[in-house]
Amino acid sequence: MLSMKTAMLLLALAFGFTACSASTDELLPTQDDNSIGNSHTYNSLISKTTAYPASYAEEVEHKGRVERIDYATRDYAEGTGRSRTNTAYVYLPYGYDDNDDVRYNVIYLVHGHYGTASTTFEAEGGLQRKVLDHMMENGDCAPTIVVSPSYNYGQPTANYVDADPYCRALPTELVNDLIPIVETRYRTYLTSPDAEGIEASRSHRAIGGFSMGGVTTWYALAETFNAFKYYMPISGDCWSLGAFAGMNQPQRTADYLANIVRQSPYANDFYIWAASGTSDSAYSEILLQVRAMAGITDVFGIDQMTFHEKDGARHEFRPTVEYVYNALPYFFPSNEGGATAIRQVDINATSFGKTYSVNGMVSDGHGIVIQNGKKYINSKR
What we know:
- 28% of the residues lie in helices and 24% in strands.
- The protein is an alpha/beta fold.
- The longest helix has 22 residues, at 164-185.
């Protein structure tokens, strides 16, 4: 089985969004189906996801393991500061114990409403774990630890809107309490468990989530931007300015997020890999926000944000596994050896009003090498 390499991002030709009432075909440019091995390239900000191989849904001989962590934290949501205990589950790839020299990237995947910390690795018969096992075995991405935290302490609220303050509090809890535990207990790139150490290792850390987990992901960008480089919001808009603000006030939300990014030393050092299904009830919520953000070309250009969709996918757990399969190799590309295929693409184009003029050779850090006005995609096959 050929491993899937990073979904390589090319410069957008034009965003091409029309009015909110436009059809999906009008809103979304088509994806270039040309590929090298298992590498896929995108000719626009909007692209289709790639299905993982059917065999990835089966158990592998050498499985990774999932460990439970109960950790001390405090009440950040209600502001009382009282002590409490929360639970997270940690996926360790097979072979973790075999080589003490290997360090691991970390992604925090946040469940949706009615889910708990155990959902990520137990739902659909452990599908997410199975796909991760295959990805790690085949070198689809660099060695990565996957953490499933929870904002609801194992007790979902009756109404998902009521979960908002807990979603907002979780990124702070992660930075203050869980990241120092996970990333010192296991071999990661964190060298000291304080704020400086977490910030210094942000390029090896991602956060993503589905539904209210997507809402949580936007909160992480807005309030803990120095801690995470990569963001994967799935089927959830930003609620920093109120519930459903990303959908109801997309431009105001986009401006709010842009100002946060501009004020950070990492204004050009982050990536948002947003996703939803075309039949997802939250599809328009996140898409309206992404449309507005993409218009702020100095902050959310094609090198900082893309949107990925799965045809026919609904608002449910199963499609999220495909999103993770597509995003992880982009966040943390495999460094394993193998033949390298080079595909040349003309980049004499304008993206959201931003014209790229490149001379010499530069790597953008995502497997794309730029030379003499052309982009070359490195893809293992």
